[in-house]
Amino acid sequence: MNVTPARVLWVAVAAGGLGLLASHWWGQHSPIVGSEAGQQALQAALEASAPPPPAGVTPARVGDPMPAIALPDLHGNVVDLATAFPQQPLLINVWASWCGPCIEEMPELQRFASHQGADGVQVIGLALDNADDVSAFLARVPVDYPILLDSPGPADASVWLGNAHGVLPYSVLIGRDGRIIKRKVGPFAHDELADWTAAAR
Length: 201
What we know:
The protein has 201 residues and is of the alpha/beta class. The chain is built from 8 helices and 7 strands.
């Protein structure tokens, strides 16, 4: 492996993100951390402690338009989120096949997605992973909402969506107008999704 300063920096950022995720994971059932105000405070703390983004990358914040994201699905077809689901609310859930909390929340995401009609919230899984590992995982734990792929790194789609530390899972709610309504660090609790996405309906 070619060890470059950029690679070392990304490993350090990822390790820091995992530490933050661990501390959040242990406190996720706290009413303070789980509340909207708690999430806003957590986001603010993560952004304040984040390294500067790479040149040309502007992480989005609540109220900003969704960044232009066009990524391949598991069949190699590129999906442009801005045009694939016009005027439909989106719940973009960033995950990976090796992320325990991500895996734990996927049945909840699937249940929510299966109850959305044609005009409901479209769930999108954005895997920071490779196609083989994601396909193997989905063979065991299938979901029927779209899954897109990106390579993890300091300028991946998650960072563009405001995930400054690369913590997983990470979710973003996009309104019908294409603007970011809210973000969430950490997994969804059982029956949390209906209330969490209500602002997009």
